[in-house]
Amino acid sequence: MLAWTIYISFAGAALLMLTPRASARTARVIALSTAIASFAVTVAAWCRFTPGEILQVARVPWIPSLGIGYHLAADGISLTLLLLTGIVAIAGVLFSWNVEKRPTEFFALYLVLIGAVYGVFLSFDLFLFFVFYELVIIPKYFLIAIWGSTRKEYAAMKLALYSFVGSAMVLIGVIAAYVEAGAKTTDLAALARYPFPLHFEMWVFPLVFLGFAILAGMWPFHTWAPTGHAAAPTAASMLLAGVVMKLGAYGCLRVAMMLFPAGMDAWGFHVLGLGSWRGLFAVLALIGIVYGASVALVQKDFKFVIGYSSVSHMGFVLLGLMTLNLIGLGGAVLQMFSHGIIAGLLFAVVGRMVYDRTHTRMLNELGPMRLARVIPFAAVTFVLASMASIGLPGFSGFVAEFEILIGAWRAFPTLAVLAGVGILIGIAFTWRALDKVFLGEAAVGSQEAVKLPPITWAERAGTSILIATTLAVGLYPRLLLDLILPAFNSPLFEGLRRGLWR
Amino acid sequence: MNGFPWISVLTATPFVGALLVLLTGQNRKTARAVTATVSGIALAIVLGLWHGFNTASGALQFQERHAWIPALSVDYHVAIDGLGLLMLLLSAIVVLMSVAASWSNEDHGRLYFALVLLLETGLFGTFTALNFVHWFFYWELGLIPAFFLIRLWGGPQRARAANQFFVYTMVGSVGLLLAFLAIFLATGKFDFIDLAQMAQSGQLGPAMAQGLHWGHWTSGRIMEWVFWAAFLGFAVKIPIVPFHTWLPSAYAEAPSSTTMLLTGAMSKMGLYGLLRILLPIFPEQMQHSLTLLLWLAVASVVWSAFVAWAQTDLKRIFAYSSINHLGYCVLGVLVAVKWAGGTMAGEKAAALDGALLQIFNHALTAAALFWFMAMLEKRSGGLRGLNDFGGLRKIAPVFCGLMGIAVFSSLGLPGLNGFPGEFLIFKGAFPLATWATSLSVIGLLITAVFLLVILERVFYGPVNERWAVLPDLSTGERWALAPVVALMFVLGFYPQLIVGMVNSTVVQLVSQLRF
Amino acid sequence: MAVNTHVINAVDLLRLTLPEIVVGLAALLTLTLDLVVLKGRAAAVRWKAGALVACAGCAGAILLLVLRPETATLYDGMLVVAPLTQMVEAVLAGFTILAVLLSVDSDFTQHIGEYLALMLFATAGMMVLVSTRNLLVIFASLELLSLSLYILTAFNKRSRLSAEGALKYFLFGGMAAAFFLFGISLLYGLSGSIQMSGVASALETQSLTPLWMVAIVMVVTGLGFKVAAAPFHLWAPDAYQGAPTPSAAMIASSSKIASFFVFATVMVMGLTAGARTWHGPEAAWVPLLAVIAALSMLVGNLAAIAQSSTRRLLAYSAVGHAGYMLLGILANSELGLRALLYYVITYGLATVGAFGVLAALEKEGMDEIDGLAGLSRRAPWLSFCLLIFLLSLAGIPPLSGFFGKFFVFSSALHAGTGLLWLVALAIAMSAVSLYYYLRVLKQVYVRDPGAGAGAIETSLLMRATVGVVALLVVVLGCYPDLLLNWIDAALRAMPH
Predict the structure, then answer these.
(1) Is a pLDDT exceeding 60 seen at residue C276?
(2) What is the pLDDT at residue A237?
(3) For B238-294, how does the pLDDT look when each residue is reduced to its tens digit (9 = 90+)?
(4) What's the confidence (pLDDT) of residue C299?
(5) Cα–Cα dist C375/C390, whole Å
């Protein structure tokens, strides 16, 4: 049944492509109903889901001569991310309600992107996984290049090339693993069982992990993220930060770590105090946390602040993955979800509520507009989003980052302490942005309030969905943790569990 | 003690109220009415809890405990004992007073009232939560509305004041968070009650040393650091000198109705933490550093009194006097850990009873004083200097009479509510920490001096022509103030009302502190 | 019916070469029809009639090839008819149909009959080329193909670029032919045989002397020219740019398919010692070919970045793709051959499609990439097809270009980890290639059309042809088995 998430999205996209002259209104209604329908499918599957199981969705031979199958399935981790995709997709359509330029194409590309993302999260066949993974790149490029702002073509190209370089690295690993395992199958479960030789995993793991981590915004390969986020139209930023970066992290977990756990074994020698890929990536993740937050602290462009904050928060995901203990891993997956929602919310405020109205994103220009008075809804939303983003208890970010910190503490105590410093800087930059944008004083001599269009119902609806989600997960994290944690007990993660990396 | 989750309902009530207020549209009157109704309901629930509360028992009552994040073994755990009930009661009263003080302030619209209700949620949550995770959530939840109340509705220096307030409290919170993270990493526990039991049985220190491996630190040293980190969080919030520098500007710049909340309720969060968390979990560490802590308490009492004397802004005077009054409470709490060879439990209980009584009274009195300030500012157009007025007694006799009662209550005049609390503290503390108590008496004297100076400069003396037509209290204001003033008298004559509520809890607390 | 003999009667020979004969006859018929019957009629009518005959001839050949499977080896491999060769021949004829259809709307020449006839002659040359294992016949048919293509390139007499391209093509092609001829004469001298099998068995017994090496280098050079592998690619950009679009489409697609098939056959069956079993990448020519492949990928992809003409861009990208395809030969295995065939056919489809779109836009004079600005608003259907073709070339799933790459790369790795570096380079370069394909698509989709640029009128036939090719690219990407099964069946029947 879950496969319908993919089909519905693609069908919606096809419908939009076939009716190029449909009005903007029709286009967005189609897009919204498509997004809601696929989310409804996900929720229905979630209701019937038993934690710990692997829900088989579809399994037919696809290219039998090469052992490639069309194998869709979902475990708790996939399901969590499917839910995230559904929610962000709906909110994204709502925040794109004002797109008037080439609307059918916009929503068609949007739905292709959504469909492909669903596909990645559902794929249990390595080849299929990669197909969907690459399929994401192209709509992403066009969404930014056509509907973006500020150096959009440059940012779009940079994003596309970074993604493609990352997926090229992954492809090498995918092919190598496929051939190494006898070129008989690309099924994830079968490959997870296959005992790859240690030296093989030692070079394939870092290659594949890095390839995916580029998309997850790992330092120093993160530079596409801020420019891409800043240039993208609101809905695309939301998807980009909310879902696409998660694809990278999901790939790290589902492919790199699940198939090649022994690649995290010690090298047997030390360079700069690092003794394994695992240590190296953990340190890079940490640098991402601290660096992203520090850079966000000095940005002048509101969207860049949020863009760099994504780098910082995704650093937590990667750090959580590298802890290799249940708490850290669970926290990482929860953080994927949580950051997806929160980043969506932040970009909605910045891109839709503020930029689309004021046509500027410069902090020093926004301050004198006294936005807190003019569009209080945006201010309140941003405050809530900031609270969620800095990880206040009660919001989803807290539980996630907290678990990651605990997990990291057990694995790398020093890094955990430094990550705590990253959180503090995170508080500082979020608060700085809040202060500069919404709490600024009116410029001397212009006491009159700026006139801006009022907040629309679509924005209110989108905001409510996202805030309700982050609150729900924050107040009752078992909602997702009960899905995520049992998933790590499945045979797929046997290698990780058995500690092949030691 | 039926199964109904009264405490959760109580905590949720103002939150739901805040949402309702936000949804009521632009109409300020509706927002105001909803806020008043909701805070009234909250007070009613608290009174109901008091009614159902068994004051003879020091145990936790109305307990609710559910698994919340099993992966981290975090439970949703709420309950109240006498201490919690006292705090709930004073929060509910102070919030209601604050709403009344904003009643006719046209600036305070929908968002203002919503934030006040959100703050009330934070207060209720903090005073009932027994697990660090959600306790900390409420602790921060109180901070954020307070920040915005100051930031958006404050005086000319509001940005600076709000930022200072936020940064100070945030640093304190980080200290707290780090302390409890360390504890959790070592023991895997977040529950205050569990941790207190571990501390009591002497397992906590060794468990910390074993669980953390910080170099070759001994358990004592680790616990010392953790204690100071946690102490920082509470010391900023109360505040204790020298962590108080955010307070005067925050209290002065905040609108008076917000200052009521800050001084009446939020400063009590710090004291509550001292009693609920530090005292049961770190008794040895407190005892170890008792001399230093006592010095800090004495400094809070004496130094702030002198500074208050030197101020000319009425709100700043009352702000410093708040530090002074809370210093007594700290003193009363601290002497409880004095090593007395297992004796003097009576004195300790008296000092703690006094501290709790003082907490309640200070909430009532300080909130009332700032309420009067709100009325005065409204009439004077924002002027509130010590020397801006004069002879108000003749122009607005009712106002001066009622405010005079509050000032005398603050001064500690017998017969009014300020007296019994301070008396009990001094009575209990004197034999336990003679020098500190003696020094604190200086603070008492100075307080009397500057409060009398206020009376003299503002109420008496020649009439300042500028205020010749200052309107006296309206009927509505009189009715609103009446119960508060009445309560001051009631508690002055019958402190047992409060002492009876908390005594069993205090006795139990003291009995657990045998060194 | 299986025939394998030295002595054969004329009827059998006729039967086995019937497809080639049909194509040749169709060429003559087209020529006659145009010169005799339709003399003086309107160009549109002549194009249509000629195209009809040409397509009918190719279609007839395809039907013969598909419906009448034959297996025969005549005169020691001078003529080999096997399911595999038949399949490739059918594909080649199919591509010719596409190229003919693309030419129907053009107006670059009045010599319509000659043009179409030359296309068919070239096709006949290719068909012979793939169905022989005799080096001399390879040379002869290669010349038939080449000469036709030179003329086809020069056919636009009004264009200086066309003449320049043709001249370059001719000069380089002549050189290549000379190298190839020199190479096979050396091989003949060394092995005493002009058959691939003879050369292979001689290689088995003799040591690899420098003279052998020279011969191999010469042969590789000659074939490298045909497939436009670097550093023998210099003719390609000019020929692609100057040639009339249908000719360019043919050079880029069917000629490529035939050349690669022959290249693989020669390398695998002729120049691998004891070519009775698959040897993997251990043959003597592997380092040489690996260097050429690497060079092609680097030169093709990096030079393509700097191009401002769409066709030159396609030419350089073709050089890059030649590099990837060489990996399939390098694998030197059945898997490699399968992958190579799949790749080159789907690559041909995407290229024909791309040239088809360019042909449709030819009247607008759009050669510069910048000229494509806002095309998606002016010709949405063609733009969408172009999107599919270019993305397929870039290797974006689920289009056939992606699966081709995946298959070729995994076949190369499967043959041995020695080729890992080359696979890594290829994948890295395909990441680079996305950049320049996206540059084109950026103009098409992102930029706005210039002022006054209205919708572009294209004929239904053109749109349908391009659409069918696009559909094939998508379908073969989603269900590669459609083609793979055909290739597999053909390969299984091969006498290896």
Answers:
(1) no
(2) 85
(3) 888 888 888 888 888 888 888 999 988 888 899 999 888 888 888 888 888 888 989
(4) 93
(5) 15
Tokens of B250: 């925050």
Alpha helices in C107-159, H assignment, sequence order? 112-130, 135-153
For A:101-140, CB contacts with C below 8 A are: 127, 130-132, 134-135, 137-138
Contact A105, A147 (CB under 8 A): no
**Residue C47 to residues A312, C352, C361: CA-CA distances in angstroms?**
64, 19, 18
Q: Residues B149, B155, B159, B161: is their CA dihedral positive or negative?
A: negative
Q: Among A86-100, A458-472, B58-72, which stretch is predicted with the lowest mean pLDDT?
A: B58-72
A20 touches chain C (CB under 8 A): yes
Given a contact cutoff of 8 angstroms between Cβ atoms, the answer to whether C191 and C203 are in contact is: yes
Phi-psi region of C4 (alpha: psi -120 to 50; beta: other; left: phi over 0): beta
* Nearest residue of A to residue C423, measured between CA atoms: A172
Q: Which positions in chain A touch C406 (Cβ < 8 Å)?
A: 127, 171, 175
Tens of pLDDT, residues A387-413: 888 888 788 888 888 889 888 888 888
Backbone angles phi, psi at C217, to 5 degrees: -60, -40
Rounded Cα distance between A146 and A139, Å, is: 10
Residue A55 lies in a domain: yes
Q: Angle C238-C292-C241 (CA atoms, 0-180°, nearest 5)?
A: 10
CB A264 within 8 A of CB A125: no
The distance in angstroms from the start CA to the end CA of chain A is 39
Nearest partner of A219 among A422, A485, A54, judged by Cα: A422
Write out chain A residues lying below 8 Å of C380, CB-based. 20
Q: Using the predicted structure, report yes or no on whether residue C336 has a pLDDT greater than 50.
A: yes
Mark yes or no for CB contact A478/B70 under 8 Å.
yes
B178 — contact with chain A (CB < 8 Å)? yes
Cα separation, B257 vs B371, in Å, equals 6
Q: How many CB atoms lie within 10 A of CB B11?
A: 26
Task: State residue B1's pLDDT score.
Answer: 44
Whether residue C227 contacts residue C260, with contact meaning beta carbons closer than 8 Å, is answered with: yes
pLDDT of B43: 93
Does a structural domain hold residue A60? yes
In 3D space, the residue among C358, C312, C314 whose CA is nearest the CA of residue C466 turns out to be: C358
Chain B residue with the nearest C-alpha to that of A403? B72
Q: Quick check: A394 and B72 CB within 8 A? A: no
Report the alpha-carbon distance of residue C137 to residue B294 in Å, rounded. Answer: 108
Q: Which residue in the block uniquely carries the two structure tokens 């030295």?
A: C6
- Please enumerate in sequence order all residues whose Cβ is within 8 A of that of C189, keeping only pairs 6 or more positions apart, or say none: none
Q: How many domains is chain A partitioned into structurally?
A: 1
Neighbours of chain C (3+ CB pairs under 8 A): A
- Which of these, C342, C445, C310, lies nearest to C387 by C-alpha position? C445
Show the domain range for A346. Answer: 4-265+293-443+450-500
- Contact check, Cβ <8 Å, B163/A393: no
- Matching residue, tokens 């200097």: B385
Domain ranges of chain C: 5-492
Domain-located, residue A281? no
Report CB contact under 8 Å: A161, C431: yes
Out of A20, A62, A172, name the one closest to residue C423 (CB).
A172
Cα separation, B354 vs B292, whole angstroms: 22
Mean pLDDT of A142-146: 88
Comparing CA positions, the residue from C399, C77, C129 lying closest to residue C256 is C129
Residues of chain C in contact with residue A142, where contact means CB-CB under 8 angstroms, are: 445-446
pLDDT category at B346 given cuts 50, 70, 90 is confident
Residues of chain A in contact with residue B141, where contact means CB-CB under 8 angstroms, are 392, 394
Looking at the domain assignment, is residue A288 inside a domain? Answer: no
pLDDT tens digit sequence for A233-263: 888 888 888 888 899 999 999 999 888 888 8
How many Å is the Cα radius of gyration of chain B? 22
